[in-house]
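This part of the workshop introduces the protein records we will be handling. As an example, a complete record with its sequence and its structure tokens follows.
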Amino acid sequence: MKTSFLKKLRPFLLILILLLTAGLASAQTTLTETFTYDGHLRSYNIYLPANYVSNSVRPLIIHFHGYSANASLDQNLTQWMPVADTAGFLVAYPNGLTDNLGNQYWNVGWPWLPNTDDVAFVSVLIDTLHSRYNIDMNSVYATGFSAGGFMSHLLAAKLSTRITACASVSGGMAPGVFDTIVPQRPVPIIEMHGTADGLVPYDGNTGQFASVNTDSLIHFWAVNN
């Protein structure tokens, strides 16, 4: 009788195993995906943490690379993966477009860069990731290094209804952008910046990578928040 029962149960067990396998098949892995926006094929890496299942709602961190870097380079540099495995969030690493010098960039307001609407691109990226991976739309975070930090601040200012919080490393804000931003809500901010930074000086500069004074930027966010 027990053998007969097990034979009847076996197909259901097989289906259950297949369903579990399908849900976990893409866990703890990096995928490279694309979509077309504004006539350009845009690409990004997406890291799915351990124990990820497709029907679970997860927070999302979007990490932006620095000028002339790329998604894969920054993924290896930052090593978000073990943290994501522990905390259960997804990490997206988008690639910027390429300028006439062959460098990948984000349009953060420096006039010598192409006038790409990267803010709108990120908004579409969030929608794309939400449709593919069931993202928690109340837990979407922007972070980045150098120019990627500039991009994070820009998104916090201009996409404040979609970006939950911003964490920038050696970033800032271009003066022309800083003079025009009006966030629609308080946005939690952290800026990690060395006072000996020679490329994006703490006190600001008017050079190629022009930026406002870091204290002034943080003061703006404190008042806004």
Q: What stands out?
A: Residues 2-24 form the longest helix (23 residues).
